[in-house]
Design a protein that fits this description.
By secondary structure, the chain is an alpha/beta fold. Helices cover 33% and strands 26% of the residues.
Length: 255
């Protein structure tokens, strides 16, 4: 039976633990804090280790796992680190299989939008309403939106992702890009209620695509199922993670 270790007992770690217990049984899921000592346990009893600790501890926890001699799959919550160089280096470390969380890719709406063809006349706008401070959004919210766009538009080179403008006020931030000749916007609004949707303008027609939680198509559970059963494209995931990190770094210089 598959066994999974979750490192991180916070909000996200608790959600992942609940989903995994439903998938593989309570006895096969272990959850510990980020202060865990890999030398006290044989980590290779776990098929998958999930790093869901605080963002600033991700890369140090991954290094601990690698140094322990672990040979299974590591699933890390985004971002691996805020330094693009560190992200690239650890993703190219062939001692481990490191997959970076991209949960929105498994959302049924994103799957549907990935199947479309886009032209230079199209506009794709991702709108996020969130209680987080606008200044804290970059690695909390924008990371997701970048890899969503990279997947939807099937972008294979970060040079195709050009930042055109960034405008910030007290309760709103608008980012505009040219991505493979398609106009892309990220709009963030300060709101006590979380909400996320995509506005699509294609062939002169507009449509709204809701990205809120869908119990009938649970993207978190789908991602976990694919990870623990090895149904993923590691090379593509790592490429997207590196490109997302590089684009975020460029954006941070404009904020």
């Amino acid at each position: 039976m598959l066994k999974v270790l979750i490192i991180g007992k916070g909000y996200w770690g608790s959600i992942l633990s609940e989903k995994l217990q439903q998938l593989i049984g309570t006895s096969n899921v272990n959850i510990v804090g980020s202060e865990f000592d890999p030398s006290t346990d044989d980590l290779n009893i776990y098929h998958t280790i999930i790093v869901a600790s605080s963002t600033d501890s991700h890369i140090s926890v991954i290094h601990k796992i690698i140094k322990s001699g672990y040979s299974g799959t590591i699933l890390c919550e985004k971002p691996v680190d805020t330094c693009p160089g560190k992200v690239s280096k650890i993703l190219h470390d062939n001692r481990c299989t490191l997959y970076v969380s991209d949960v929105w890719v498994y959302h049924n709406v994103i799957v549907e939008l990935c199947a479309r063809n886009y032209t230079s006349n199209d506009t794709v706008t991702i709108v996020t309403e969130h209680p987080s401070d606008i200044k804290d959004m970059l690695y909390n919210l924008t990371y997701h939106d970048i890899y969503i766009i990279l997947n939807i538009l099937d972008v294979r080179c970060e040079s195709s992702f050009k930042i055109t403008s960034v405008n910030i006020t007290a309760n709103r931030c608008t980012m505009r890009f040219n991505v493979s000749d398609v106009t892309v916007e990220f709009i963030y609004k300060l709101n006590s209620v979380k909400n996320k949707y995509i506005l699509l303008s294609t062939d002169g027609k507009s449509s709204i695509h809701n990205l809120n939680y869908n119990a009938d198509h649970d993207s978190v559970t789908l991602m976990l199922q694919n990870i623990i059963h090895g149904n993923f494209d590691l090379k593509y995931n790592n490429k997207i993670a590196c490109e997302t990190s590089n684009i975020l770094n460029q954006l941070s210089l404009k904020l």
